[in-house]
Amino acid sequence: MLLPYMYLLVSYALVYFIDLKNSFKNAVIFLILALFILSAIRISIFLDSESNKSDKYEALQSRLEEAKGNIWISSPIIAAESGKKISKLVYYPVFWQDFDETLLESKKADFIFLDTCDLDCRPFDLECGDNKKKMIAFFKQNFNQIYSKQGDCQQFVFKRYSK
Questions:
Q1: 127 and 86 fall within a common domain
Q2: Is 115 helix (H, G, I), strand (E, B) or coil?
Q3: Which of 41, 83, 99, 108 is most solvent-facing, going by the fewest CB within 10 Å?
Q4: Are residues 78 and 37 in the same domain?
Q5: Cα–Cα distance between 78 and 58 in angstroms, integer?
Q6: If we measure between CA atoms, which residue out of 104, 114, 118 comes closest to residue 67?
Q7: CA–CA distances in Å: residue 50 to residues 27, 60, 150
Q8: Are residues 45 and 87 in the same domain?
Q9: Sign of the torsion angle spanned by Cα atoms 125, 127, 133, 138
Q10: The domain boundary residue, chosen from 51, 70, 89
Q11: DSSP characters for 86-98?
Q12: Same domain, 44 and 124
């Protein structure tokens, strides 16, 4: 964050020292080169650490390509790279405001892609956690669970039972 300001200060110092004496010229140039090299190293370390992170939605995204019909998702990231039309985005805070209505409407969905981390609850909202459990139980009872993954968050793909 402070790197641009540091570069400005170093640039100003460079001009100042060059005007004072040329004997400092080599030292200042060395200092600037050292700063640029250190910055490049830090940037490469950051980019390397970010590129090694796994996509937590990868499994849901691959199953989305196979889905057809009325699709509900819990995060826009699931459909970000897809050309699929998404019928409903189910996530906090919109989801919890109309909980019962959402459960009734869910019978219209052909596929539901759900990551429980997307359904955060406000602190001290005990009813929200219970509603989340009820919703997952409702989906398990009324839909065919075609994918499930346990981890820090649970991921599910539900498909409507064939009629």
A1: yes
A2: strand
A3: 83
A4: no
A5: 8
A6: 114
A7: 35, 21, 23
A8: no
A9: negative
A10: 51
A11: P-EE--TTHHHHT
A12: no
Tokens for 98? 């109309």
| Structure confidence at residue 111 (pLDDT) | 93
Report the alpha-carbon distance of residue 79 to residue 107 in Å, rounded: 21
Please give the pLDDT value at position 1.
58
- Is the same domain home to 23 and 86? no
Which amino acid, one-letter code, is at 37?
I
**Helices and strands counted in the chain (H then E):** 6, 5
Domain that holds residue 44: 3-51
The amino acid occupying position 136 is I
Residue pointed to by tokens 């004997």: 23
Q: Which of 147, 157, 110, 115 is nearest to 132 (CA)?
A: 115
Residue 53, helix vs strand vs coil: coil
Contact 88, 72 (CB under 8 A): yes
Cα distance between residue 126 and residue 118, in whole Å = 17
User: Please, which pLDDT band fits residue 52 given cuts at 50, 70 and 90?
Assistant: confident
